[in-house]
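Sanity check record (used in CI):
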Amino acid sequence: MKIGENMFFDKIKINGMTVPNRLVRSATWEGLASAEGFVTPALEDAMLELVDGGVGMIITGHMFVAEQGRARERQLAIFADEYISGLRSMVNRIHDHGGAVVAQLAHAGGYAAQAITGMPALGPSPFAMRDGELCQEMTEHDIDVMVYSFQQAAERAVAAGFDGLQIHAAHGYGLSQFLSPHFNKRTDMYGGVLENRIRPLVRVYEAIRRVVGEKYPVMLKINCEDFVEDGLELQDSVRVIQGLATMGLDAVEISGGLLTNRPTTSSTRVGRFDSPTKEVWYREAARVVRENTKLPIMLVGGVRSFSVAEGLLSEGVIDLVSMSRPLIREPNLLTRWASGDLRRADCISCNKCFSVLIKNEGFFCPLARAEKSE
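Expected output for 2,4-dienoyl-CoA reductase:
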């Protein structure tokens, strides 16, 4: 295949960042940070494997902006200045290999890991966490602290040399919880109508933009829908995207589902998506977003075939293709496709890569590793 014959291999500019092709490694919890959240050689090596495999833009796994907002063990941290040096080393190595890397900033909200942080989990309203306990409701001061934590984390991301940053407001984490009536039962200025529920996200965006400037890429990850009763729905997601676009947002990544959803509606759906018609879970949602914004759109969820991805790009539905699990199995997927081997991604969406993550073994595909050992 000749590079240039397909949009997949075209460059794209997002504010001040040039991405060499249209493949994005969507933010993925790698489980390769140290216990304290520092960059490790294993994490750096995993990033370089993606760059060398052809990924145009890497979005880091969700980096926690505050100790109280930590979601996982061995999750990458950016809540203090002491993390900048290690992050800068990783970013520099990625740049040396010709890659672009974006910092995803996140606060787990009511899904924070109390057993790790030693602090109560705070959400927009009390709701049952993954361990069954109720999280505590954030006070207005707690919300102020969260906003400031995002702002400080953004300053650190710039200092570390990241090419841009992404605000994580999807999958039921903190900012997603505020957007969703499923979690947000508040009756004050942060609850009720969408104009109130979006307020924490707007404040976070404004705080970040103040410190990074107008020419630095700031992106958003958001659910098209939560797929639960009283969850965020597409029409409200579109309004959120439109609102932030008028404020200068540079790009949006569309996903869907919550951490606690059943396997058929979660953001990491299980099943064999082995035909073009079964791929791309949020295709129609992306079309609706495209009709309502001129922002560059990234889409994650179920893309497994070159022809499907190229079709989405050439039809103008999206501008970049985001992948997660397929790149755990095959970090060199785009290089394979560029060579003319257009077989669909080897990933079978079994989620065994997450089973090893939960065991603190770091992310890898057990099936691929077993095949190599045979």
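The first strand starts at residue 12 and ends at 14. If this sentence no longer matches the regenerated tokens, the check is flagged for review.
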